[in-house]
Task: inverse folding
């Protein structure tokens, strides 16, 4: 019985996804607020990267990570917005 | 004066001038309508919006002032990085909704939206007024950025002659903004941003190589300035100042009329979401530009006799221009200076357009000519955009530069006071418009007072909670007062005098 249902799940086309964006996923974009909000963690010189002190390269790298998180959440939400006009 | 760099500078400037006028025909629309002139017809796609918002938010003054701050004070100046990281989650989460509401109701400004949501034209006037007052010194500061590079190229003179290049640049700016509206800065932003990227990439490769690597660059910085000073006993010191400055600035930035104008001109919510993920490219560039301040320290330009005059006149704002003059061949210095000067045109144009939209929609049409035609509306906005620019020019030529800087600092504190009505109003109508109005007054008054105790020279105000001093950005503290007053008074007013004309939230949703 259970097994049969599982097969149906595989072979039947998935239902279109709900229109509401996944709000749990959106919490990801708030991570940079924690990472850069706690100053004592990164207010130090070492370890250096290519001669750049930690204070600087840590914060610069969060620009990139923050952008990737936004791109990831956007990509995950995109199917739920397909019907919108571009 | 170096002829080659001046020639390149003038050539690039002439090129964008032509672009500015051609822009009127780009994606042609009826410029006699305010949302065609003032919002580019709301048709900008992902790429154009990326260039426009990038060119608009990262202003010429930023490119001069941020490295100058690093040059002068060290690590505290790097708050620009968390600031520009935190802007984008806010843009991603909140502004697509704002875009949708404004599009569905034909709003052109944030004050339009507040007017529609709460049905209170006085609250809308307060929002519009805040936007106008906060933006004008910001336009003036763009001129400061331009002045520094014009000075660096060796234009010196006395009286009227000294200001002539600036006046010419602003006449050009005024003319193409008048004729083409938001299309002009959108098109010019492409050139500006490409020039900025080229300059910065060249700078971070060539300059450290000449100085002997990043190790040497950071070694030139005073060890105490390389990180934030550890807070003294019983205080959160520089830590809370750093974080609150970054957070408050991020919240304030998106409320500025020029930021909203850029957001509202995009063609869909997707364009805004996508841009939240790709605009951080500019943040990265800004982070690198901040480091130019340290490179200027390491190069020793401040003690070279040929730059002594410049430092005397422009202070640490001269650090980056001096560095470019010292490190780049003269033709490339011309390119770099053109990048900064054109970088001043884009935000100045968008800011003046935003002011034109605000005045027309929320003062002229609301209080003087409720039945004006679309053509009258757009004509008024055009004229106001000119007046605002002339005002900024007078400000810079006739008043000490310090006034513009102080007013811009206050502007950040003022503009954030529009957050409860503009942003919270997107999600709930429970707040009462009269309560929001009094909250706005409380926020403006307390924020100005806090800055006043610092003699308007700073914005980091120390508050004390159970024996611990927490220095923080006055904008955030006064915003807390604003929100507190708005909530408490909403309880009272909703019982006694509820808003009669508020639009129910349901109609604002899709």
Result:
């Amino acid at each position: 019985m259970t097994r049969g249902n599982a097969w149906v799940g595989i072979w039947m086309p998935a239902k279109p996804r709900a229109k509401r964006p996944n709000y749990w996923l959106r919490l990801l974009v708030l991570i940079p607020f924690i990472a850069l909000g706690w100053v004592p963690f990164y207010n130090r010189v070492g370890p250096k990267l290519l001669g750049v002190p930690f204070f600087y390269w840590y914060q610069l790298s969060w620009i990139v990570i923050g952008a990737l998180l936004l791109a990831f959440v956007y990509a995950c939400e995109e199917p739920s917005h397909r019907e919108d006009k571009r | 004066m170096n002829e080659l760099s001046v020639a390149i500078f003038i050539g690039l400037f002439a090129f964008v001038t032509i672009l500015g006028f051609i822009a009127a025909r780009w994606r042609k629309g009826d410029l006699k309508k305010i949302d065609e002139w003032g919002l580019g017809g709301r048709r900008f796609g992902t790429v154009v919006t990326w260039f426009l918002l990038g060119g608009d938010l990262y202003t010429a003054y930023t490119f001069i002032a941020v490295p100058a701050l690093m040059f002068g004070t060290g690590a505290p100046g790097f708050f620009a990085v968390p600031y520009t990281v935190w802007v984008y989650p806010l843009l991603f989460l909140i502004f697509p909704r704002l875009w949708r509401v404004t599009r569905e109701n034909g709003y052109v400004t944030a004050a339009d939206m507040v007017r529609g949501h709460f049905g209170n034209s006085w609250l809308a006037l307060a929002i519009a007024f805040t936007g106008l007052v906060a933006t004008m010194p910001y336009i003036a500061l763009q001129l400061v950025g331009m002045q520094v590079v014009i000075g660096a190229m060796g234009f010196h003179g006395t009286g009227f002659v000294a200001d002539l290049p600036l006046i010419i640049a602003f006449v050009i700016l005024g003319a193409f903004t008048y004729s083409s509206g938001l299309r002009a800065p959108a098109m010019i932003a492409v050139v500006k941003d490409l020039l900025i990227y080229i300059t910065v990439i060249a700078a971070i490769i060539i300059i450290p190589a000449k100085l002997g690597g990043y190790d040497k660059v950071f070694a030139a910085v005073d060890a105490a300035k390389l990180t934030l000073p550890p807070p003294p006993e019983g205080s959160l010191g520089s830590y809370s100042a750093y974080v609150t400055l970054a957070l408050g600035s991020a919240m304030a930035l998106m409320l500025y009329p020029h930021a909203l104008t850029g957001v509202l001109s995009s063609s869909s919510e997707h364009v805004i979401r996508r841009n939240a993920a790709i605009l951080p490219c500019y943040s990265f560039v800004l982070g690198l530009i901040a480091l130019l301040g340290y490179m200027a320290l390491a190069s020793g330009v401040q003690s070279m006799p040929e730059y002594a005059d410049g430092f005397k006149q422009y202070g640490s704002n001269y650090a980056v221009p001096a560095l470019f003059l010292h490190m780049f061949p003269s033709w490339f210095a011309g390119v770099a200076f053109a990048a900064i000067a054109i970088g001043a045109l884009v935000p100045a144009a968008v800011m003046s357009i935003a002011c034109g939209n605000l005045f027309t929609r929320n003062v002229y049409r609301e209080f003087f000519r409720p039945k004006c035609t679309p053509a009258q509306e757009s004509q008024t906005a055009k004229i106001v955009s000119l007046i605002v620019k002339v005002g900024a020019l007078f400000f810079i030529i006739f008043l000490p530069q310090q006034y513009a800087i102080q007013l811009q600092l206050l502007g950040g504190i003022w503009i954030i006071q529009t957050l409860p009505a503009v942003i919270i109003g997107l999600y709930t109508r429970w707040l009462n418009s009269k309560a929001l109005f009094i909250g706005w007054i409380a926020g403006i008054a307390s924020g100005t007072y806090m800055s006043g105790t610092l003699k308007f020279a700073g914005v980091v105000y120390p508050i004390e909670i159970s024996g611990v001093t927490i220095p923080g950005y006055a904008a955030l503290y006064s915003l807390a007062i604003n929100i507190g007053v708005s909530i408490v008074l909403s309880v009272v007013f909703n019982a006694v005098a509820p808003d009669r004309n508020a639009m129910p939230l349901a109609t604002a949703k899709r």
Remarks:
- The CA atoms of residues 362 and 381 of chain B lie 11 Å apart.
- The longest strand of chain B covers residues 460-465.
